[in-house]
Amino acid sequence: MAAAAVTPAAGFISGKTWRAVRRANRVGGPFVGLVVPNAYEMDPVLKNPSFKPRGDIPILDVQGRRFRFGTIGGQSVVMVMTGLSMLNAGLTTQLLLSLFNVKGIVHWGIAGNANEDLQIGDVTIPEYWAHLSLWNWQRYGDGPANELPLEAAGDYTRKFGFLNFSDYTVGQGNKELAANTLNSIWYQPEEIFPISGTPEQRQHAFWVPVSKRYYDLAGKLEVTRVPRGCSANVYTDNASYRQFIRNHFGCTPVEMESAAVALVAHQLGVPFVTIRSLSDLAGGGSSLSNEAATFLAIAAQNAVDVMLKFVPLLGAADEHDDR
C-alpha cells in the first residue's frame, strides 16, 4: 500500500513528460511521423547520414516507446519503433499521433510476397491495405448460404468472402474424407470510429486507402506501386494460403503491421503511406527453408533507401487535406 501511494499509475503520463512533448512540438513540429516495426529496419536509418538527429530535442521515452527526433532532407521527423504485430503497431501509431503534431506518416519495412510476378528485394507501395485476421469462424455443417451469427445485427458480414478448409485437404477425390470440421472462416471488416463521425457510432472499413498525394509522389521513385497489401497477426509461410489471398484479395506484400498503422491514421484523418520491400516468396522458394533470413538485410536496406528518398518529397503541401 505504501508503494502504491508514491508510484504513479503505469499508464499515466507525467507532467514532466507532457512538458517535454509540448516543447518538442513547439521546437520541431509539425513532424513527418516515421513508424518502423523492428530494429533491423530502423538501424540502417540511424546509421545513414541522411538522417540528422536534432540536437535541440532529446530522445523521449513514453510508455515503453522511444521517440527520436531529426531531419531528413529538410523535413522535421519523429521516429518510433513499434515491435512485431498489429497490436503493437496500432498502439504505437495512436500514441505517436496523440502526443505529437504529425502532418503525415511514412511506414516502412520488409514483407512476404504473394505476387509471383515480383522478385525478392523489390520495393512495393500498395494503394490499399486490409487486415485479414479478423474472422467469423463458421460452425461445421453451415455453408455460404447460411447467415452468420450476429450478421443480422450488423456485427458480421459475408461480403468479403471466406476460406473453406476442406478445399485444401489432400486427396479430395473422396468428398466424405475430404470434409473438414474446421469448416470456413469469413473475413471481416474492422469497426472504426473516425474523428469525422459520431463517437460510439461505428463504421466499418476493410480496404483502407493510403494518401492519394503520397501514392502519386511515390511514382517519382524506383518502386512498384501495387493495388493492395494485406496484414494479419500471422507469419505467412504457406504456399496454398499465399495463393488464396493473392487470388481472392489481390495482395502483393503480406506482413503483420501496416493495416494497423493504416486503420489508426485513417480514423484520425492523417495522411499515410507504407513502403514494403519483399524479403521472400511467402511459402515458396526453397523446399528446405524460408528465404526471409537470407535476404532480410537486403530487403530492409531497400525499404530504408526508398523511405529516405520519399520523405524529402513531402513539402508544405502536406498541410492541406490531401488524403
Automatic annotation (TrEMBL):
Residues 32-311 form the Nucleoside phosphorylase domain. This is Nucleoside phosphorylase domain-containing protein. SUPFAM superfamilies: Purine and uridine phosphorylases. It holds the Pfam family PNP_UDP_1. Gene3D superfamilies: Nucleoside phosphorylase domain. It comes from Digitaria exilis. GO terms for biological process: nucleoside metabolic process. Signal peptide: none annotated. GO terms for molecular function: catalytic activity.
